[in-house]
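We treat protein structure as text, and this decision shapes the records that our systems exchange. The tokens are whole numbers drawn from a learned vocabulary of local backbone shapes. Below, we set out a record of this kind in full and without editing:
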Amino acid sequence: MQDILIVVDMQNDFIDGALGTAEAVAIVDKVVEKVRRFPGKVLFTRDTHTPDYLNTQEGRNLPVVHCVEGTPGWEIREELMALCRTEPIDKPTFGSTALGEVLRGLDTLEPIGSVTLVGLCTDICVISNALLVKAFLPEVPITVDAACCAGVTPESHRNALAAMQSCQIQIVNG
């Protein structure tokens, strides 16, 4: 059995860039430590937009240009990228079906014992990918480490954690 850690969108624009928050900055060292200590396989996702982002449905609803491919804001935080052993999974929107397919493939090669998610933003991309993983691997226990996540606001972070818990995703703190 293998255990998987998914590091969701720990990118400069979400940490201290266009959509950064103090809460996101505060989790960076915790996420770095989690990745360093994790005994299994670590996968990274990367929010990836094109220069016409504002013309997309997401861009019309969140009109802040961010994570445009090739820009400094799109890059995974340097200290985390140094720990990345596989190519990040680029995703054009909140949840990544490509991530689900990668996990399904890994599970075929060697059964997945658990999936843990950390990263940004709890209330958008973390919850989207946690539920997506649940759909792709319904019998695999899924955990979200709340201490290694941050939401758009502290309140939306807490709401997302409660919603995930309602969907049988275990929430831990550290």
